[in-house]
Amino acid sequence: MESRLLETIAQGESASVEFKRCGAQPAPDTFQTICAFANHMGGSIYLGVEDDGTIAGVAEGVVADIQRNIANVACNLKLFDPAVMLETEAIAASNKTVIRIWVPMSPDVHRYKGVVYDRIADADVKVSSSSQISAMYIRKSSLETERRIFPYLKLDDLRSDLIGRARRMAAARRPGHPWEELDDEQLLRSAQLLVKDYLTGQEGLTLASGLLFGKDETIGSLCPTYKTDAVVRLRDEDRYDDRLVVRTNLIDAYDVLMGFCERHLPDPFFLEGDARISVRGIVCRELISNMLIHREFTSPYSAKLEINREGLHTENASRTFFEGNITLSNFSPMPKNPSIANVFTQIGFAEELGSGTRNLFKYARSFMGSDPSLVDGSVFRATVPDAHGILLMGKVPAHKSGSIDDAILELAESRTSFTLTEAADAAGVSKRSASAHLSALIEAGKLVGEGLTRNRQFRRA
Q1: pLDDT reported for residue 131
Q2: Same domain, 79 and 13
Q3: Among residues 93, 149, 427, 445, which one has the fewest Cβ atoms lying within 10 Å of its Cβ?
Q4: Helix (H, G, I), strand (E, B), or coil: what is residue 352?
Q5: Residue 189 belongs to a domain
Q6: What's the rounded Cα separation, in Å, for the pair 347 and 357?
Q7: What kind and span of H or E run contains 245?
Q8: Is residue 213 part of a domain?
Q9: How many structural domains comprise the chain?
Q10: Given its phi and psi angles, is residue 77 left (phi above 0), alpha (psi -120 to 50 degrees) or beta?
């Protein structure tokens, strides 16, 4: 027990660990932290430990009195509304006594002396706005908001052409897909978008059905604050170079945001085996599908996609089950909107649960030279840093898996003819470097050059 305590102290305070000095009785802010932990993800308070990790201890003669006082305050409905469940234990360490208060995550929203507290990083924060308190209730709800039934949402409020498109995409991806033989209503039932609540007997279309297939006016009524704001800030950091606000259904939104990224992001040459693949397409697909699938749609926090001098960034409101940095070693996939995720998977916009994150870590370094940063919390933030500075240069270095010659020959295969500038762009090098490689390929008999220097064209030999 002592070794575990010392290990925890060495790691310092966090969203789930708090150190506090303690005299004869706990300080009032101890109960603020208890309220914050109960409202957030739970945690442990260590009484008798300084902020810097020094073990000051609690006087032996008052340990039982302190534990009794904590239990009494936590159950006092004049102070806590509702009462908070917790446990205390005395731990001997370095010949001193530390009291640990363990507070599990509560299904309720608690107030201490009429104030709601939440835990942000290693601080207890007062929550006063109604939208923040609503978000807290959503976070604690056991029901995904995408499955909320809207009894007055009808098939006429959805776009039949979009359902048909999803049917065709699923069939093209997997011939013989069950959706091929289903009409619109049957498809929605199969995708768990038209459901029955066996607890209440209510039956109808869900929020997810409206977000995936709804007309724009339908979506605006279901989720008035729903939007994705995409901006480019490369030349003009104070304002923006380009901006796009997307309020349409999730399927069209995916296409629009992918097109936005294709217009503003380079696509470095990359060979996997003998085939060229688009690392830009893979990385953007994973970031955009994650932002659209796993966001908390009832939150007023707008989703954002930003391309700036630091790299590519996305962020969206999240109904989190985990807080902190996500890595492949601690990654535990958990669907936040499983119905939406299922449709995206069926039509090929997303991978199976967990595969997308692994792809992001696999290809991000080949895209812009660095591993991604993924941080989950009430807001999920993802960043692919531009380690090579290619967004400012406007050029993309050829990846080591494919040489400059390979990039130029790949271009020659896809075009009847091409120019020096196009060759340089395809290989991600300067015109001078591309010219040297073109000359070598012509001498090797792999390419043919035609025309004068100014308008010279190249083609496959």
Answers
A1: 75
A2: yes
A3: 445
A4: coil
A5: yes
A6: 18
A7: strand 242-246
A8: yes
A9: 4
A10: alpha
For residues 349 and 431, membership in a common domain is answered with no
Q: Is 373 exposed, middle or buried (0-12, 13-18, 19+ CB in 10 A)?
A: middle
Residue 396 scores a pLDDT above 60: no
Strands 324-326, 111-112: parallel, antiparallel or unpaired by DSSP? unpaired
Q: Is residue 303 part of a domain?
A: yes
- Take residue 380 and report the two structure tokens written for it: 């999920």
Task: State the Cα–Cα distance between residues 408 and 418, nearest whole angstrom.
Answer: 10
Domain that holds residue 88: 2-128
> Is the same domain home to 169 and 116?
no
The tokens describing 63, both together, are: 């340990």
Domain check: are 420 and 453 in the same one? yes
Are residues 240 and 387 both part of a single domain? yes
CA separation, residue 49 to residues 8, 10, 57, 70 (Å)? 11, 11, 6, 17
Beta bridge partners of residue 449, listed in sequence order: 458
Q: Which two tokens stand for residue 75?
A: 């159950």
pLDDT per residue over 20-37, tens digit each?
999 899 999 999 999 999
Mean pLDDT, residues 121-125 taken together: 88
Query: Would you say residue 398 has pLDDT above 60?
Result: no
**What pTM did the predictor assign?**
0.65
Q: pLDDT tens digits, residue range 144-183?
A: 689 899 999 999 999 999 999 999 999 999 899 999 999 9
Give dist(CA 86, CA 421) in Å, integer. 68
The answer to whether residues 318 and 187 belong to one domain is: no
